[in-house]
Amino acid sequence: MNLLAFDTSTDMLSIAVQAGDQIWQVQQAGGAQSSKTLLPQVLELLQQAGLELAHLNAIVYGCGPGAFTGLRTSCAAAQGLAWGSGVPTLPVDSLQAIAELARAEHGAERVMAVLDARMQEVYVAPYRWHWTGQPGQEAGTGHWQREAEILALPPHALQLPPGYVLAGNALTAYPEAFAHHTAPHYHARPTAQAMLRLAPMLIARNGLQTAMDVAPLYIRDKVAQTTQERLQTRLRGQS
């Protein structure tokens, strides 16, 4: 399978190209720079893999939740590339990519994914891995099931069910809020390589979209603080 995957939902830009069994990838500082560097890096990786856009089975993009500007960058790039090439797109939510990274690196099969949402909030959702083959086999013999809706809430309000691990970048952003949890903590961000592992299962479950369907996953309507709210946050931090 030939796939292009990228995520710009955090302060890290992650891109990967898969051609058959081989993968080319790059991870670097993202944030505001992603809008300038994403497409040039995509074209460079495709060239390294010897692929044209039209050779791809899908364009896999991080749809969110995450940084507002980052999600717009990811969706605009996915839509533009899909319109130009006629290749279908495949959205992957940021928290499921975090859960997959925790599974691949730590063997976790019950994951509370926790992503920094800024504004003193986190995006959270619980995921459980369900095997459809024999446990221990390679990815593609199971799927993730989200056990509840994705929420944006204050980090101290998180309720962790028994048997779940914590994974995400919010653990370092708000260490005090998570210190009382005794479950394992794994620092993680969504990565394009995790998205590539998820892609076959999501495609098999009819996850492909047209370019017209590309859209970010916003969990809250309010995506920025006012000047007065930012000032109040700074004053609270100084008190």
From TrEMBL:
SUPFAM superfamilies per UniProt: Actin-like ATPase domain (SSF53067)
Statement: the UniProt record of this protein carries the keyword Transferase: yes
Coiled coil region boundaries: none
Gene3D superfamilies: 3.30.420.40
GO molecular function: transferase activity
UniProt superkingdom: Bacteria
Gene Ontology cellular component terms for the protein in this record: cytosol
Pfam families, A to Z: TsaD (PF00814)
Keywords: Transferase
Residue stretches spanning the membrane: none
Residues of the Gcp-like domain: 33-128
Protein name: tRNA (Adenosine(37)-N6)-threonylcarbamoyltransferase complex dimerization subunit type 1 TsaB
Source organism phylogeny: Bacteria, Pseudomonadati, Pseudomonadota, Betaproteobacteria, Burkholderiales
Gene: tsaB
